[in-house]
Specification:
There is one protein chain. This protein is 64% helix and 3% strand. It is an all-alpha fold. It has 2 domains: 18-83, Winged helix-like DNA-binding domain superfamily/Winged helix DNA-binding domain (Arc Repressor Mutant, subunit A), CATH 1.10.10; 90-281, GntR ligand-binding domain-like (Four Helix Bundle (Hemerythrin (Met), subunit A), Up-down Bundle), CATH 1.20.120. The longest helix is centred in the middle third of the chain and has 25 residues, at 101-125. The two termini are 14 Å apart.
Amino acid sequence: MAHRLELSHIRPVKTMAAHELVLEQIRTAILVGRYGPGDKLPRERDLAEMLQVSRTTVREAIAVLTSDGLIQVKRGRSGGLIVRATELDETVIRESLRTNRQKLDEVFEFRKVVEGASARIAAEKRTAADLIRLRSILTTMDEIVGGEVGHGQDIVARFMALDHEFHAQIALASRNPWLADATIAARIEMFRPVGGVFRRLEPSAHTAHHHVLEAIEAQDGAAAERWMTSHIDETWAVIDSWLEGKRRVKVTPPPEGRREDRQEEGRQESGRLSAIASQLGAGRSPRIRR
């Protein structure tokens, strides 16, 4: 029997302390690579002003981050709140991912629907300024992959931060705030469990990014969507092969269909996105099923 969404379901309201909300924002910024190992966070006073909370609230969040080993507090003129390089146990990460595999699969399904649509619409609505920003990000990624291939965590962290920015900029280029918010939320949910999986960059690490951007430049929405969903499939295949200890199978984009088929797929996807928007509006976590 098909699962029926109960959009009117009323659930208990969960409250969070102010310092937990601050903690979540700072932790997310570190997870997505906005601040990498060795980087300084804004000063306590500046964080309080940015987040519009008291310095005491920020101090409580900093204490938790320090206890968790994510940051260290250095005193003196050259000190500050420094992001630490974390040593992660691969066995622990692998077991955690296996335990949460269904949720991770759902996150990647959600990414394919939302980011595929973002790429398609961005191809239709992008401006010259959007293309300049995306090309600039991609050029920096090329420089990292081409000149610093290896195991360095600082290199990987920098690349992952740019990767997040590239995907976020595509979503913003769609001129649809719902898609932009959903893209960033889905990527954050992905980074929580898999942030420590990628420890090496290879020359082919982001070939699909070029194809996506080329399609957006050519205003070919169908191609942009195909390459984006293929890219997300490839990322999931890498994680899956790492979990199972098997040889990675390369994912190739599906062949271009007839115009009528693409139009029908677009209508079906619009229906799926409407369902997702309804779930988000009702405060539910989207559950995308095959």
